[in-house]
From TrEMBL:
<protein>
    <submittedName>
        <fullName>MarR family transcriptional regulator</fullName>
    </submittedName>
</protein>
<dbReference type="InterPro" id="IPR036390">
    <property type="entry name" value="WH_DNA-bd_sf"/>
</dbReference>
<dbReference type="InterPro" id="IPR039422">
    <property type="entry name" value="MarR/SlyA-like"/>
</dbReference>
<dbReference type="GO" id="GO:0003700">
    <property type="term" value="F:DNA-binding transcription factor activity"/>
</dbReference>
<dbReference type="Pfam" id="PF12802">
    <property type="entry name" value="MarR_2"/>
</dbReference>
<keyword id="KW-0805">Transcription regulation</keyword>
<dbReference type="GO" id="GO:0003677">
    <property type="term" value="F:DNA binding"/>
</dbReference>
<feature type="domain" description="HTH marR-type">
    <location>
        <begin position="1"/>
        <end position="130"/>
    </location>
</feature>
<dbReference type="InterPro" id="IPR000835">
    <property type="entry name" value="HTH_MarR-typ"/>
</dbReference>
<dbReference type="InterPro" id="IPR023187">
    <property type="entry name" value="Tscrpt_reg_MarR-type_CS"/>
</dbReference>
<keyword id="KW-0804">Transcription</keyword>
<dbReference type="InterPro" id="IPR011991">
    <property type="entry name" value="ArsR-like_HTH"/>
</dbReference>
<dbReference type="GO" id="GO:0006950">
    <property type="term" value="P:response to stress"/>
</dbReference>
<dbReference type="InterPro" id="IPR036388">
    <property type="entry name" value="WH-like_DNA-bd_sf"/>
</dbReference>
<keyword id="KW-0238">DNA-binding</keyword>
Length: 130
């Protein structure tokens, strides 16, 4: 019976984590929508903003981004195409591997990220406070 209680506590904790994630994701989508973004869009911009500078070394390979934002490569490719269409990112060939694609922020993307960063961080602070 003790194992059953421990197991149930584990499941309850897991479901609490899932619920918190869902609530936070919905709130991020709601507030970021005012800026023309969804939570996944912002996550990609946020990852790309970590690398500074005008050279290709400030870009991430698509595979690197997908590992950090937890999207499949196909979903990420569609998202990057949309961000590129909006002028927020640009894609280029990877110098080390001509089959690879690198993605970097444009000036417009960097400006939007800077504008929206405090909004996203405020939501995280509010939703994840203990």
């Amino acid at each position: 019976m003790a194992a059953n209680k421990a197991e149930q506590a584990l499941v309850t904790r897991w479901r609490g984590i899932l619920a918190l994630h869902a609530r936070t994701q919905c709130e991020l989508d709601r507030v970021l929508h005012r800026h023309g973004l969804c939570a996944s869009d912002f996550e990609v911009l946020d990852v790309l903003a970590e690398r500074r500078g005008p050279s290709s070394s400030c870009a991430f390979r698509v595979q690197e981004i997908s590992e950090r934002v937890h999207l499949s490569q196909s979903a990420l490719s569609r998202l990057v195409a949309r961000l590129e269409k909006d002028g927020l990112v640009e894609r280029g060939l990877c110098a080390e591997d001509r089959r690879g694609v690198r993605v970097s922020l444009t000036a417009k993307g960097r400006a939007l990220h800077g504008e929206v960063l405090p909004v996203q961080r405020a939501v995280l602070t509010r939703m994840l406070a203990d």
